[in-house]
Amino acid sequence: MIYETIAKLIFYAKYHLDLHEDDEIYIRNSILHELQLDSFPSKKIEINETEIIELNVPDKLIDELHSYFINELKLSDKETELIETKIMGILTPMPSEVNCKFYSLVKKDDFKALSYLYDLSIKNNYVAKTRIDKNLFWKADFGDKYLEITVNLSKPEKNTKDISKLLVKSKTDVEKYPKCLLCGENVGYFGRLEHPARSNIRVINLNLDGEKWFLQYSPYGYFNMHCIVVDSIHENMIIDEGTFRKFFDFIDLFPSFFIGSNADLPIVGGSILNHEHFQGGEHLLPVMNAKIKESFSSNKFKNCRISLLDWFNSTILLQGKDRSELIKCAANILKNRRDYSDIDNDIISKVGDVEHNTITPGLKKEKDGTYNLYLILRNNRCNAEFEDGIFHAHKEFYHIKKENIGIIEAMGQFILPARLITQNDEIKESLKSGLNNIDIIAKYPNLNGFEPMIDVLRNEYNPDTIDADIKNYINDVCKNILENTAVFKNDDKGQMGFVKFIRSIL
Fold it and tell me: Among 253, 259, 266, 505, which residue's Cβ finds the most Cβ atoms within 10 Å?
């Protein structure tokens, strides 16, 4: 009965979403409108309040709505999704209320404030926790360092060339509303066929380096409390000294989190290059546990420890408690990095007017006040042999991962496409049946390009260990991809070049 569902939703919002009893009738009438109803029973509807109090996610109530929309109103799946999201948005406090409560909590404990917004985003279904919890996750150990591997069931796989096109603005792009998925205009936006519903998103207003930004949580949730910090202006990604100042403003306000940014160039950047944004969260990414390989002192930056990390790609770690000096040191490294070429290591900074050098930065603050600023060196140049990027995942690894290697992966957590679940099952079935490669591709066209992986697994085939063998194969591919992205390789020539670069800027 739909009226019982409405009563449940109202009680759910009172208990989980801070709905004030003075607003109950107003909210109920708003929901009636969305459900194409014009009345509500005067007799009190009995519901199981205990059951609703115990709900950690609103899935059960959304399922009831979904059934009504599909079976009674005969709506399409897309129409149903838009209205379900709208109803959850109606039940959620207004943006001003959320900001007011958030900042009252920040004064006492930044983590309590961040947890409040995260819990709200789960309870109103913006962060679909049930779906996220279905993602696969495991740890890949490589001696004294490790990677984290995830198979994300909700994130669409993107093409690097399509991502690059985002930087080219057209008249149509300028007129779009909202201009992209990150724009502030998404708050409360109903959505349309080609743009997801955002009625239930809530954001926190920030002032970073004197500019208006805002914080929200990621609907994909690569790790616990995965947040996105977004510029209020729709403009292209850029890494400069202002980036570092914004990092430190953020981390001083929210020391419980780390903050980082994708690079600002195609191929080595993230999937949204046309709107400046950062990513962060509570989670410690693997690079943050990497050991120091070599440290340097500098007369220019005496209060800053400069180190090379024992990591799969080319990462510099700056440490110290003087944020001003750390910012100057990082800006100096970035400035010199932009124009630095090393032909022996295949690094060319520019071809004509096209820049190829940049960095992927990240920042974490220790409890004793020490800042750890990570600078991962990147280069997006292509050549005849590596048409998609010399320092990008090489083609022999595309069957596992072909997308841009952004900050999350550069710092040690791989986000792999959901297709791998089906493909891995097909590989297991093929090996169990004893099929040759020609028959495998004929039966499973989806495995075209997986022949080298199948050959490796066939040579070691054991039905009792096949799952572990597949994971180990994927682990090695992810490690190899990160090593592909290293501009200074982990060999004698590469490390000599890395040290030479560091000494040139001290």
Answer: 259
Shared domain check, 85 and 10: yes
For residues 137 and 81, state if they share a domain.
no
The tens digit of pLDDT for each residue in 178-227 reads: 999 999 999 999 999 889 999 999 999 999 999 999 999 999 899 999 99
Domain end residue (candidates: 91, 111, 145): 91
Give the separation between CA 454 and CA 470, rounded to whole angstroms: 10
- Verify that 152 and 222 share a domain, yes or no: yes
Q: Is the dihedral of CA 415, 418, 419, 421 positive or negative?
A: positive
Q: Is residue 473 part of a domain?
A: no
For 407-462, write each residue's pLDDT tens digit.
999 999 999 999 999 999 999 999 999 999 999 999 999 999 999 999 999 998 99
CB-CB contact of 240 with 203 (8 Å):
no
Please give the tally of structural domains in the chain. 2
Find out whether 260 and 252 touch, Cβ atoms under 8 Å: no
Q: How long is the chain? A: 506
DSSP string, 487-502: SS-SSHHHHHHHHHHH
Separation of first and last alpha carbons in the chain: 72
CB 313 within 8 A of CB 482: yes
Range of the domain at 54: 2-91
